Amino acid sequence: MGFTTVAVVLFDEIPLFEASVPIAVFGERRGGLPEFDVRAVAAEGGPVRTDAGIALAAPYGLDAVDEADLVIVPTWRRPLGRPPAREALEALRRAHERGATVVGLCLGTFVLAAAGLLDGRTATTHWRYAPLLASAYPRIQVEPDVLYVDGGDILTSAGSAGGIDLCLHLIRRTYGSQMANDIARSLVVPPHRAGGQAQYIDHPVPAPADGDPLGETLDWALRHLDRELTVDALSARALMSRRTFDRRFRQVTGTTPTQWLLHQRVLHAQRLLETTREPVERVARSAGFASAVALRPHFRRQVGVSPTTYRETFGGPGAPDLPAERRAVPELA
Length: 333
Hints:
By secondary structure, this protein is α/β, with parallel strands linked by helices.
């Protein structure tokens, strides 16, 4: 079912950029494309005060939510701040009950959760706040590493860029890829990133205190990831039995030595892809993988894309230049 009227529900103390995401995607008039009736809603009445101190004169009240086909909460103030206004939560519930599509971008997921719309559903939010969402709302299955979750009538996304991805996904699923590609080209962003793709997060594993034999061993391992490192060898270096080493390791890091090593190898490969011109085969060996073939499945599983795609997206000045034919946003059918 299509949508033409989009209500963007804005709360006080929200980040300015995130608030502007759905307005940028749906609100700009672009020649040759359908126009949406985008209504900026002041959820708490009066001018909307952003976290930067800028006041926004949102021209609509909550009654606009009752008339919208698509209702988007683009963000929210700090999750542990004062709760959303009761009137706003009721408006969201009414919108969902009458069949509108309801969307929470980034911290806007917390507003949908407070309205009870996500109970028994899968959702996501910015990775930094995903554990808080899961603990505050245990009836929600939180997916912390994906860009967005499409639940049909209710959708949620990760951080700022994930919000753009979800808005383009809505265009694509409703009006087709050509329209989504045209809007993406206008915004100069990738035309499509799958929702299941991982958020680009550097998940650090907590390090033990300095002077701890385990901490010294992990520091040594990080400096020698290109070597073949076995758990038995690491436990011997820490002067511990394998059983004691495994137990202490899990207590300190929350994971197993094998999982930690694999994770650190992929992180190291990410950094090399970002900062060097080394071929993927050499990057793989420098990170402790036997070959690029051995690296790829682990890299894709952890990061969500292939090493080559990651380099194309995040490679800095030290990374290889892309071929000319790959620099433009592709025109996908």
